[in-house]
């Protein structure tokens, strides 16, 4: 019996908890949603499996619990993979890939669309004050508020600088809401617009020259980092990736950055973030508050973009379809696709995708600037 007991103690059955089982079910739910609903599978499948990996029950050795897959255990390989999250290494690399993937010409052709990306960041600062009211410290509140930008890498980056203790719930909340963009945004967009507004047709964007596309990332980086130096690493990698795309002489580098490179980093960041969501660190009241505040922040950001587009229309002869304002959150390109989808429901011949990409790109820039400002103020 003593030998049997020793064997039992080195199995996961000895250390398994209800929390481990619950988190395993959450991981399975993420995988199910990704496969069944096709909601951000490239993110949710790595995160979902990472959650399961991070909740492997500990074994008992000499009366002590040993966690083999804990990101806090220096003897675990996950400790070193998680280092890229904890120190904010992975997010700039993701931004490099985003820059190499994204066409900025729609924003260049209609610069006023950047105002919609800026307006959508309003949710970040509203949620910041809401988190303060719920008792979070300022640096925690800033990290929670950034969820409203619907930008997982930016949320991870700011959390690693200000609130490493909360990276797991903040990152998972941010990526969850990114995946649920097609579910969360349409009701808000329809509520705040009339059918007449949703039917507005916008003229085809003007042609953007190659010189403009090359100059844009360089000038944008210089101007934005003069305003918010804290955003320099994120914006720098974003604009560097875009310059690789547009220069015309670094296609090999651009191709690598937007394919295999960004895929590798996505796998690492997804599994690492998921693995950090162990039952011991995740199942706390603060995590539930963070999810609630994240949903509120995302809703406010979506509404702010739509409302600001309607305000612009009051003073502009050339009308904007307010639906593209919802694309001001930086879930690229999902928010732009949602604007196209909602617009097509009213008029299948109205193509809003290219117009929505303008505020969508501006939202990426805006969320990075917001993170830089919060980092500078709250650090």
Structure overview:
With 379 residues, this protein is mainly alpha-helical. The protein has one domain (80-378). The chain has 21 helices and two strands. The protein has helices at residues 2-9, 18-36, 41-54, 77-81, 83-86, 90-101, 105-109, 114-119, 122-133, 138-145, 152-162, 167-179, 181-191, 195-198, 210-227, 232-247, 251-275, 279-282, 285-315, 334-346, 353-378, and strands spanning 59-61, 64-66. The model has no long low-confidence stretch (mean pLDDT 90).
In a few lines, what is going on in this structure?
This protein is mostly helical and 379 residues long.
Mean pLDDT: 90
Low-confidence stretches: none
Q: Would you report the number of β strands?
A: 2
SS-based structural class? mainly alpha
**Overall spatial form:** globular
Describe the biggest sheet?
A: 2 strands, antiparallel
In total, how many domains does the architecture comprise?
Answer: 1
How far apart the termini lie comes to: 56 Å
Q: Helix amount, in percent?
A: 55-70%
Strand line-up of the largest beta sheet = 1-2
Radius of gyration: 22 Å
């Amino acid at each position: 019996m003593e030998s049997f007991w020793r064997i039992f103690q080195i199995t996961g059955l000895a250390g398994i908890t209800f929390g481990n089982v619950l988190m395993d079910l959450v991981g399975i739910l993420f995988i199910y949603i990704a496969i069944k609903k096709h909601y951000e599978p490239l993110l949710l499948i790595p995160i979902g499996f990472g959650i399961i990996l991070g909740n492997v029950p500990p074994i008992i050795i000499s009366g002590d619990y040993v966690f083999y897959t804990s990101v806090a255990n220096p003897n675990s390989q996950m400790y070193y993979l998680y280092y890229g999250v904890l120190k904010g290494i992975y997010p700039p690399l993701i931004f490099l890939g985003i820059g190499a993937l994204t066409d900025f010409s729609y924003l260049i052709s209609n610069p006023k669309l950047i105002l919609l990306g800026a307006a959508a960041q309003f949710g970040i600062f509203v949620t910041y004050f809401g988190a303060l009211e719920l008792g979070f410290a300022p640096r925690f509140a800033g990290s929670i508020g950034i969820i409203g930008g619907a930008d997982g890498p930016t949320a991870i980056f700011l959390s690693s600088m200000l609130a490493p203790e909360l990276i797991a719930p903040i990152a998972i909340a941010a990526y969850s809401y990114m995946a649920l963009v097609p579910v969360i945004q349409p009701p808000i967009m329809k509520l705040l617009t009339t059918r007449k507004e949703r039917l507005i047709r916008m003229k085809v964007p003007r042609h953007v020259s190659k010189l403009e596309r090359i100059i844009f990332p360089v000038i944008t980086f210089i101007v934005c980092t003069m305003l918010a130096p804290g955003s320099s690493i994120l914006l720098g990698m974003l604009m560097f990736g875009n310059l690789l795309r547009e220069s015309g002489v670094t296609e090999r580098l651009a191709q690598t950055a937007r394919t295999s490179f960004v895929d590798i980093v996505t796998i690492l960041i997804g599994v690492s973030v998921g693995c950090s969501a162990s039952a011991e660190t995740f199942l706390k009241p603060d995590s539930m508050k963070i999810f609630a505040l994240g949903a509120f922040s995302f809703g406010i950001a979506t509404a702010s973009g739509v409302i600001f587009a309607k305000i612009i229309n009051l003073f502009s002869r050339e009308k904007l379809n307010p639906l593209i304002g919802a694309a001001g959150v930086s879930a690229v390109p999902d928010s732009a696709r949602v604007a196209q989808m909602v617009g097509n429901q009213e008029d299948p011949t109205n193509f809003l995708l290219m117009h929505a990409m303008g505020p969508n790109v501006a939202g990426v820039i805006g969320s990075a600037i917001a993170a830089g400002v919060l980092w500078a103020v709250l650090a």
